[in-house]
From TrEMBL:
The protein's name in its UniProt record: BIG2 domain-containing protein
InterPro entries (UniProt xref): Invasin/intimin_cell_adhesion
């Protein structure tokens, strides 16, 4: 190896992995395949202060191991929050087992070894890895292949279980019990409720207020109640819906 300090003082070298490379003086001996960090040091003397260490990465290919490839033609585009788990299919030329890893478990996580469970929305990279080693009486090098894509948010709408997309207008009397308008968040793609909570607001607190998620009648008059759902990491905000209450 060749390296110099501006002081002219001699350098020492170290290897982070003696199973891959050892160092004697400035000569590196390669012992196995893999990656090691080679660090040059100069600790200084009575005149010169020590220099900052400099590290370089040494990658050694083990010629006793055969190279392999991962072929991953599966498309993961167009996925959205709420989709079913996706079975990942990335075969290796060695026929060895593939493991998968997610870059962001808040967007997607690996379950059952080879399935992507969508947990949110956003950019994600899933990496397929074959660890190498002895497979079918042949030694193989490790290999990895990343695949980047984006999980989209799902849409939601606010509906009523009886009247559908239109929230019914209501007539109430002073003294009536507080009532739940029964608006709900619904996923029109999966055709199922999302389970997300609806919040309500009143246009006139002198006629009706919102108490613990229910409409509380205050006095005679007409009031507009707005139902909203602000969205989550997996769902876009719903378009607000309104209905009137005549007291």
């Amino acid at each position: 190896m060749e390296a110099n300090a501006t002081s002219g003082l001699g350098l020492t070298f170290t290897s982070s992995d003696s199973g891959i490379a050892t160092i004697s003086g400035n000569v590196v001996t390669l012992l196995g395949g893999g990656t090691a960090q080679i660090t040059a040091k100069q600790q200084g003397n009575a005149i010169y202060a020590g220099a900052a260490d400099v590290t370089q990465t040494l990658t050694v290919q083990d010629d006793t191991q055969q190279a392999q490839t991962i072929t991953w033609t599966q498309s993961l585009s167009g996925k959205r929050f709420g989709d079913a788990d996706v079975t990942l299919t990335a075969p290796a030329s060695s026929t060895g087992a593939i493991t998968y890893a997610s870059s962001d478990t808040a967007v997607g996580t690996i379950v059952s070894g080879n399935k992507l469970k969508i947990t949110g929305s956003g950019a994600i990279t899933v990496t397929a890895t074959q660890a190498g080693g002895s497979i079918n009486s042949q030694e193989w090098q490790a290999v990895s292949l990343p695949k980047s894509f984006t999980i989209a948010k799902s849409t939601q709408i606010i509906v009523h279980p009886s009247t559908g997309v239109v929230l019914p207008n209501l007539s109430k009397s002073v003294g009536d019990f507080d009532f739940d308008p029964y608006a709900m968040s619904f996923d029109p793609v999966s055709n199922a409720p999302t389970g997300l909570a609806i919040t309500y607001s009143s246009s006139n607190a002198n006629v009706a207020t919102i108490v613990s998620g229910k409409v509380h009648i205050v006095a005679v008059g007409t009031v507009t109640i707005t139902a909203s759902q602000a969205g989550t990491s997996g769902y876009d905000a719903a378009t607000n819906k309104t209905f009137t209450v005549t007291v």
